[in-house]
Amino acid sequence: GTPVDPKAAALRAPGAPIARRPPPVSAAARDAGPRSGAGSAEAPGEAAPPIAAAEPAPPPPAPLAVAEQREAMGGGNPAGSAGGAGGNAPRGIDAGAPLAPGHVIVHNDVWCNIWIDGASHGNQRNEPLEVTAGHHVVRCVNPIGEWTQDADVAPGATRILTGSLLRDLQVTLDVDATIDGKPYPRGAVVRLKPGNIEVIAGGKKQFITFRASCRLKDTPDLGCYL
């Protein structure tokens, strides 16, 4: 028969029926929970404890704004991902882009072959010659002489170099003469640049090529004699 709970028997009132303690439930039966249908050991009127609902999954994180994504990638600078640590690369500037070239123009009183940094550019007086930005050494070479000048050329800029190779000549007049439209008295010493110049003297007019210092005479022929 069902065992009698001694504590319950000691506390019952006289004449009251003896309370019977329910049979023990095994651990396997507890874990299995209540069974439906006939033969269920579940006490009448006792509801089975509710099964806890599964915790809902957290919502996915909201997408970062474009500015926040850039900040996360480049430290707050939109060019940070390209500029390395700190994002210091200037926006829209390619640090590896070559500098724009510049030009050099040589002015000289006679023709000359032009050399730039040891490379010949031929007889190109008064013409723009393309060079890289930076420092250059320019030479102007003619059979009668040459000159050399340094030139610093900025990107996209043009440098003009001016020189002279012709030396003044001294022409001593043995006769009154008009040279290149200007009259001079006999005995005057006139300084001229080499070249072909109009001379009027002794009633004669002609072009005389002056190449060196000389004396202007009208006999036997009008000319400049060494």
Q: Would you kindly provide a brief summary of this structure?
A:
By secondary structure, the protein is mainly β. The protein is about 10% helix and about 35% strand.
Number of strands: 15
Helicity level: 10-25%
Uncertain stretches of 5 or more adjacent residues: 36-45, 76-87
> In terms of quaternary structure, what is this?
single chain
Kindly report the spatial arrangement of strands forming the biggest sheet.
3-2-5-6
Radius of gyration: 58 Å
What count of helical segments does DSSP give? 4
Q: What is the beta-strand fraction?
A: 25-35%
> Overall 3D geometry?
rod-shaped
**N-to-C CA distance:** 163 Å
Structural class: mainly beta
User: What sequence of helices (H) and strands (E) makes up the elements?
Assistant: HHHHEEEEEEEEEEEEEEE
Indicate the mean pLDDT: 76
Largest sheet: 4 strands, antiparallel
Features:
226 residues; four-stranded mixed sheet; 4 helices; 11% helix
Structural description of this entry:
With 226 residues, the protein is mainly beta. 11% of the residues lie in helices and 34% in strands. The chain contains four helices and 15 strands. The protein has helices spanning 6-11, 27-32, 66-74, 80-83; strands spanning 102-108, 113-116, 119-120, 129-131, 134-142, 145-153, 158-163, 169-173, 177-179, 182-184, 189-192, 195-201, 204-210, 214-217, 223-225. The strands form four sheets. The chain has a four-stranded antiparallel beta sheet, with no helix packed on it. A four-stranded mixed beta sheet has the order 11-8-14-15, with no helix packed on it. A four-stranded antiparallel beta sheet has the order 10-9-12-13, with no helix packed on it. A hairpin with a 2-residue loop joins strand 2 (113-116) and strand 3. The protein is rod-shaped and about 120 Å long. The model is unreliable at 36-45 and 76-87 (pLDDT under 50).
